[in-house]
Structures are given as structure tokens and as C-alpha cells.
Queue: 2 jobs
Job 1
Amino acid sequence: MTTTTGTAAVTRAVGAAHTRVEGRDKVTGAARYAGDLPFAELAHGWLALTTVARGRVRAVESAPVRAMPGVLTVLHQGNAPRVDADYTGVLGRPDPILEMFQHDRVPCVGWPVALVVAETPEQAREAAEALVVRYDEEPHDVDFFAGRPGTYTPEGSPGVQAETEKGDLEAQLAASAVVVDASYTTPEEHHSPMEPHTAMARWDGGRLEVVDSNQGSMWVAEELAKLFSLDPASVRVRSEHVGGAFGAKGLRPHQVAAVMAATVLRRPVRVALTRRQLFSLTGYRSPTAQRIRLGADLDGRLRAFDHQARSQTSTVHEFVEHSAALGRVLYDADAHHTVNRVVPLDVPTPTWMRAPGVAPGSFALESALDELAGKCGMDPIALRTRNEPESGPVSGLPFSSRNVLACFEEGARRFGWAERDPRPGIRRQGRWLLGTGTAAATYPSGVAPSTAAVTAEADGTFTVRITAADVGTGARTALTLVAADALEVDPGRVRMRIADSDFGPAVLAGGSMGTRSWAWAVTAAATGLREQLALGGDIPPQGITARSDTTAAVGALAKKERHSFGAQFAEVTVDVTSGEVRVRRMLGIFAAGRIVNPLTARSQFIGGMTWGLSMALHEEAIRDQASGAHVNADLAGYHVAAHADVPLIEADWVDDPDPDDPVGIKGIGEIGIVGAAAAIANAVWHATGIRHRDLPIRPDRVL
Ligand code: MOS
């Protein structure tokens, strides 16, 4: 086993493959998800959604529905409890969709207009579907790809820098021997977690309890407390098992509706969403339109770099898919310009979806780099090597570590890149054209303050408590390994308890920051506990507990460019008779910090890469312009890559421990998808000689 900097002195568990600690419970069905748990007196809520894209709700005709079998109540704008969404949460201002039933305005199709609560889910659904809502309709606009005079440069979106600029772009473009000026589009895409959103709310002894499926129980608890003007200590949110999240599982309308109904009825109420409702209620990735201009010398050195990205948001809230962000990290140029603009439309507000901004941004940017390599007559990897920056291209800050070239080197070796004939459209096997492509990947490596508690139990075991979320990634197992090493005990002696807001503040599972942030807190608490135990003495029946809070330590980190990196490779075949693109193999090599559990890390990387394949070839939510509604809001019409679409995918990594992290972690949640679609699009170009700048690369676009 290799020892890397910044790691615990004694390493047993971290770095060795470990099956999920809850794996047996999951495959035997013992693991209960939010929709599975029984509660006495449980009532069931069903959301009714608007069917018009813009206007006012004139009337919710609830009387006939209230008389239907089993119906307990119908909540709507006329009778629902009041909420107060005038707050700034962990991730900024809340999406006003949480203010449902508070007013008569309809900003999109699929806005919650009523909640029908009944004794059974079937009764609630039947009544909700029978509910008549009258509207005063207004003209709407849901057409993102039309020209857009209303487009503006956003301000004040958390985590989004709208625009960066250095140097004289037009002058450098004019001085460039080679110029690429190309426009790219990506469609609206949806998270589609396997487990749809579900929440149960009840009042119990003066406390509000929510059993949920989310990415951060403390996050959801804090926002619920603010929304309902409750003492934060009186709200408890738990989320034991989560079947996928990808950015969609924060506070969404169903938890709010469940709390409203539980408050009105004084009994537990569960609201579960259908797959179709997810398409309206839980956020999505905005479509993007991007223009990239690159100017270079003949040897490939970049003089001019310009990435302009546009995304959509709703008319009630600003969310920016900041696709122009990654060029601020990847490539330098004498003149460098990036800008994210946004256009408000009569649609639901988009939200974070795996590798927000960077996933569509990398499709455009890494395609443009490939186009530039072609124009310069250079190998695409050599072009990237030529433009490897010394420090942050925009910030000027040093990189904490940057091993993107090591990824390309290792990837090229394993993929067999050296044998590649760069000429496009010349390899054919029967009716198939063959091609290979590559792309760079990067994603920010962040960390946020968290707290943890570690207890030495009298029986010689240890219990860790932290409000972490395991959204299916294996975080619970990773933290078990981290705790075991910090305690210098076998992982079998560590009991990991997560996803209960009563365990105290901790960052949500998002932005590839969860495991790193929680591992830091767990390590700190475990280290403190070992110091206490070293003093000797018996362990009392209640155990000995040490707590940590990483606020000061995280705050003391020096400012650096901190990122994970990677190199993606793909081989495709293109059927010249049907236009079908099939991916034969993919390889991703990542430099993404210390890998805690190779087994689940590999799954996460190839999951992201599979999603990149899906993005490249399949995924596309389509809105009917006339009604403003989706025409394919289900997994039959919205095609997510299935097993038959997914070829041999390999993911591996180079040694890249973060020098400033106690465990060496950087975070791996997002980076698997970054660049994957571009590698496939570049391979399609190599196969056919045709550049596809609009996703997905559907058969009708290929022919
Ligand atoms: Mo992620 S899109 O940060 O859940």
C-alpha cells in the first residue's frame, strides 16, 4: 500500500475496497426508504399541478372532491397554512415554488395548485385527478432556442460568477493564425433518480418530524424551520436511505405540502411524487446555448479564449447553469473572456444537476478544443499539453494540485491512443464507421464546515453520528473507513449513524463536497476521542463521546485553485444506414484526491461516465410550445441510457492526494460526467468527419 501525504499515520481501511456497510440491508429489503416506513394513522397527500403555463388560478373547485371516498382535506390557495419564503438559506434564496398555495399566480405548467389528502394513496390520487381548477390564461413563452432580447447577465446567484475578462479579446482573435468560432446547444435534462421524492411529516410532542429522501437533512430542516417560522430545534428531519439525488433532493414542494397537511390534520401525512411529477417539481438542468471562440498560434498556443453561455430560468427565480465556468480553470490565453447569461421563461426553475454548469460547459469547450486541434493539425492531447497553465488562468492563484496531464498520459497508454490515425471518416467495418475521441475533465474541490460526534461504547465498539447523507454513493461506507483509520480500529467495530438533523450541523451531499467535509469532521472527532481514551480509565455505560466542529479549520485554508481533474476517452461506431451511434468503450482516468473506497469510487466514476454517454446520445426533455408542457415526462419518452447502451466502461485514477486535507480527499461526485459527452462527440467526428454541436446526437441528426 502506498502512503501519501496528509494521511493518517496508520492506514488500514482507507484505500482498500470495502462493500457497502448497508449493502446486505439494501439487497434483502431490510433497508427502508422514506416511502416504505409504516406510521400509525398515516394519511396520504397527492399534489395537483397546473395545466396552463401562465396566468391566474380563478377557482379550485374542491367541494366535489372533498365528498369523494376517503378524502380528508384539499389544501389550496384559499385555505392552506401560510409560509414565509422571505429568507436566505444555505444555498441562497429559496425557489418560490415552495410558496405554493399562497397566491393565485401560475408561472409554469406543473406548478403545485392543490394537495388532496385521503386515507389511501389511491383515493388521494383519484380525487386529485378529478379536481377541477379554473384559470385565467395568459400568453406564455417556453421557447429557449428562439432569439432572446430579454437575456441578461445574472447577479447574486450563489456560486456563480457571471463574467470574467482579461486582455483584448478581439485584438488577440485578429492576431491568431487559427480561429474556431462555434456554437453548441444542450437540451433540458432531468435527474431521474431511481427513487422518486417522498416525505412523511408529523407533529410529535411539539416537534415536527419529517422522514424524507434528501441530500441533507440539516439543510431541509433549516429551510423548513425558516419557511414555517419554527424554532430550528423543534424540527427533525431524517433520511436514512436515498435512491439517488443528483442535485434534485433538497427542500421541494412535497415536503412543504406534507408539513402543511400534517399541521392541518394533526396526523402523519406522506406525499410521494410520481415519475411524471418529478419532471415539474424537483428541478432540472437548463438547456444551454453556448458560443466559443478560440484563437491560437499555429503551434496551438491559445491567444484568445471566449466562452459565452446562455441558460434559462423561471420568471420567479434566478438559477444559472454556469456553463462558462470551467475555462477559468482549464485553459489560459492572452485574452480570456467567460460569461454566463440567463433568460427567464414560463418554465419551472432549473436547479443543480450533477456537475452543474460544467457538464454542458465541458461538452462545448472540449468539443471546441478538438476542433482547434484539427485546424492546427495537432493531436488533441498535445494541444492540451501546450496550453497547460501554471496557475489559475483567471484567479492567478496556485493550484493545490493539478494532475490533468498525468491523467491524459495514463489514459492514452491504456486506451491505445498512440496508434490512432487522426484523420476523420476513414475507418469502416461493414456498415459501421469507427472513431475515438478524448476530452479533459475538471470539477471544483470544495469543503464546508461540519460537526460530528464519535462515541466509545462500553462494549468496545464505536458509534459515529453525523448528519451526512448517503444518496447511493457509498458515503456511509467511506466514512466508516475514515473513522476506523482515525480510531485505529477495524471498520467492523465502527457503527455509522447518518442523515438525522438531530446529529447537528453538517454540509449537504452536494458539489462533490460531502464525503470530504464529513470525513474531516469525523477524523477530528475521532482524534479527539483517542486523546481522551489515552488518558485511561473505564468506559461508563453511556460511553465516552468526543465532538468536532471544523468551522475554524476549514476557514483557515489558504486560498488556492482546488480542483479534481480527469481525462475521458471514448470509442464509438456510427451506423451509416440508421445514423445510430453506439459507444464501444470508455475510459476515464481521474486525479481526484485520495480515493477512500475504490469499490464505490469506481461505481461513482462510471456512473457519471454513463450519464455522459446518456447526455451525448439520448437525454432530451422536450416542451410543447403550444401548451408549455413536456411531451416526454417519463422514462419511456425521456431516454436514459439502459444496460444495452452501455459498453465496457473503465474508470481508474492516478495518485493525487489533496495536500491540505486531513484525509487527502478532493471529492468525486461530479467529475465522472464532465467531458464524457465531449469525448463521445469528438469520437463521432473522428468516425464520420461530421461535427455534432447539438446534443443529443440522435440518429436523425447523424444521417
Ligand atoms: Mo450535486 S448537482 O451538487 O447534488
Job 2
Amino acid sequence: TPGQTYRIAAIPGDGVGAEVVAAGRTVLDALAADSAGAFDFAWTEFPWGCAHHERTGRMMDEDGLDRLADFDALYFGAVGWPTVPDHVSLWGLRLRICQSFDQWANVRPVRFLPGVRGPLRAADEHELDWVVVRENSEGEYAGLGGRNLAGRGPGGEVAVQSALFTEVGCERVMRYAFDLARTRRHRKVSSVTKSNAQQYGMVLWDDVFRRVAADYPDVETESVLVDAMAARFVLRPQDLSVVVASNLNADILSDLGSALAGSLGLAASANLNPERRFPSMFEPVHGSAPDIAGRGVANPIGAVGSAALLLDHLGRPAEAARLERAIAATTAAGVLPRDLGGTATTADVTAALVDHLGDA
Ligand code: NAI
Ligand code: MG
């Protein structure tokens, strides 16, 4: 659509979140400036996070969700700081947004970039590239349970943390995974559970997977237990394409995948509300990295890769691909931040990304 202005809410959050979101905005604005007026971005920044919590006692404003609801997309950094317990900061902002806006599919590509020597590189000359699709609305992160249910006192406390699996929740994320597989070179979906040990929710998951798979006879399938899949990520990743898993399992597997690709700082993610009733949210997989925050050395590639997913969602696949190529050209040229064994700062990498937008 020519002359379109996309209204984006930026929520940098805590720690390196602010540094990498700023980098992503710079790259997106450069892309818009080069679009000959085809599109641009109108940014609104929300200063929510742990510092906001210290000032106000809340992770986000009370009417925060209402204020976010009308944006075309949300661009998120990371949340969490030692001043606020992690379960408070995560539930008070990021999980609150994901759950309220029914962002039920969390899409996390694992991308091996040229010039980055990940642990699998030496052993393998295959093109490695797969996507983890994470069920993002229920499962182990449904928030069901409680502490001290039986009224036991100190020392005798009990806690229950239940997982919730619904047929509807399983089916929609699996159909998303199968539709995604149809757009890829290798049409395959690997379903991950621990249904040998978790005999209720995960057996339902397996049943729904078999039923949905029957509607996609052109897509290869397999069901793998999560521990075996962790080993597969390391030992035989070349036959992965789309990996669909529950909330917790996919969370862990996608961190493993990005570490294998070279660093957690590379990993991008989209929290999608595929029906588009609510805005979707795009964020790097990593957290606020307090150990390196404020030093200008955070790797912005995960945040910029998330910006590419944002462009795709806005119906701009050509621009998304251009951003992906700029990322690959940057790493191929050896402009690597510290987590990838280089010396480039966040600003150096961002400048190289902007330069390489001109390549294509
Ligand atoms: P983390 O992802 O913040 O850091 C893990 C390791 O990766 C650290 O050594 C860090 O320096 C490194 N790292 C992370 N991002 C990087 C980047 N862009 N460039 C270079 N190195 C990078 O995870 P951690 O330390 O477990 O958690 C720190 C805080 O972040 C906690 O409060 C946690 O709750 C929060 N967190 C928030 C998430 C989110 O907002 N989506 C996700 C994960 C953690
Ligand atoms: Mg995680």
C-alpha cells in the first residue's frame, strides 16, 4: 500500500531492551526513508518496565492495554531487572500483553548466519534454518495453580502449577505450523511433547496433532519427545523445518537453537494474534541482560530480525527479505558484536545493517 504510515508502539523495557529497540528503530526508519514515500513509521514509546514499577508500583499503566490496542504492531525489548522479582515483571508486562491480546502463536526462527561460527558449524556444512512455533497462550504458562492451598504453615508449604491444554489451543497453533511449513523448502512439521510422562495434556496434544496432520497430506510429520528433540537440535538439525511445541518446551528449545546458531543475541521472535483482532508483538528472544546493559555492546541482530518479522506481518515481505539480507551481509562482512566473538559495538552493527540495506 503506497504512502502508508504504520503506527508502532515501542516498549523497550529494561536493560539492553532499550539499546536493541533503539537499534531496530534506526534500521526500520532507514528502510522507510529509502522507500520513496511508500511507507513510514509513526513511533510511540511507552516507558514501562522495572523502573516504572519502582516509581508507580506497576509494570505498566493501568489503562496500558487499552492504549496499545489500536497500534499496527508492538515492538518490545525485554523485561526484568534485579530490583523486581522476575515472575512479577514478566507477568506484569510481557505475559500480560501476550495473554490479553491473544498472541497465541510465538514464531521463533533459528537462523545460521554467514561469518558466525556457531558450535555446529565445524561439524556441518548443511544450510541450517528452522523455525520453532511455540504455543503461546496456555500449556505450562497458563498461570493456573496456587501456593499453600491446604493452609499449611511455614516449612510445610505446597504449591501447584498446572498446565492447561485445550483442543482449540492445540489445533490452532498446529494449523499455523502446517501452513508455515507449506511456505518452506522442506515441508515438514515436527511435534514435540513429553507425552510418555505427561499422560493427559500431552496425549491430547498428540491426538490433535494426528488429526490436524491428516488435513495436510503434502506435509511430512513426526512426533518427538522433548529430551530427544534437544539432542536432535545438536546432533542432526539438518532435517528440521518447523518445530511446534508447547509453551515451556518451545521456550527452552528455541534458546537452545539460537545458542547453537551462535548466540541468544541473534534470536528473533513474533508473538502473533493471527486473526488480527489485536496487535501482534515483535521482540528479541533474549532478556534484559543486566550483566552487559548500559555498555553499548548488546547484539542488536535479534531485535532487527524481529523487525523483519514485523514487516512481514504488516504485509511487506520484500522489505522483510531486504532486512534479512542486510543481516546476513553484516555478519558475512565480519561486523560481529562481542557475543559472537567480535569487537563491534551495538552502534557499529546498527550502522553496518543500515549500510547493507543499500546492497539490494
Ligand atoms: P538474558 O537473555 O537477559 O541473558 C542471558 C545471557 O545472554 C547473558 O549472558 C547476556 O549477557 C546474554 N545476552 C542476552 N541478550 C544479549 C544481546 N542482545 N547481546 C549480547 N548478549 C546477550 O537472560 P537472563 O540473564 O536469564 O535474564 C535476565 C533478565 O531478563 C531476568 O530479569 C529475566 O526475567 C529477563 N528475561 C526477560 C525476557 C523477555 O522479556 N522476553 C526473556 C528472558 C529473560
Ligand atoms: Mg525464553
